[in-house]
Design a protein that fits this description.
Layout: H1 3-8, E1 13-16, E2 23-26, H2 46-49, H3 55-70, E3 98-101, E4 104-107, H4 109-115
Antiparallel strand pairs: 1-2, 3-4
């Protein structure tokens, strides 16, 4: 393993959640497999988030922040929303991008905002 490779990695550390106190692992498994928190949308500033949160607390914090943002969206301002400018990802997170209802995926407003436009299918949570 060369020094450049090690420089790019965030080594795994054992952390205590600053919210609930449980112990969890934080860091990159490899250069290709980043820390679990990289699956979430980059919506926090380091100063806001404090120290690392466990996966459950981090998901809850993301959900709250996203829900607050979604309440500011109307059909008039949806096309100019900031979520569409976030890095694109194929990883969907239950409770943030969608929920399950009778075995069916129901995409939430956040998912539609990230896409950036209406698909024309009459989605339940379409902000456009």
């Amino acid at each position: 393993m060369n020094k450049y490779y090690l420089y790019l990695m965030n080594p795994i550390k054992v952390k205590h959640c600053s919210s609930c106190g449980i112990v969890f692992d934080c860091g990159d498994i490899s250069l290709e497999k980043k820390c679990w928190c990289n699956d979430f949308p980059p919506i926090f500033n380091f100063s806001e988030a404090g120290d690392c949160l466990c996966p459950n607390c981090f998901k809850n914090s993301c959900s709250l922040k996203i829900d607050e943002y979604v309440t500011t969206i109307s059909p008039e301002n949806a096309l100019g929303n900031r979520a569409k400018d976030l890095p694109k990802t194929t990883h969907l997170i239950e409770g943030i991008d969608y929920y399950l209802e009778n075995g069916n995926y129901v995409f939430k407003t956040w998912f539609h905002l990230k896409r950036g436009s209406c698909c024309g299918n009459g989605c339940r949570h379409c902000p456009y």
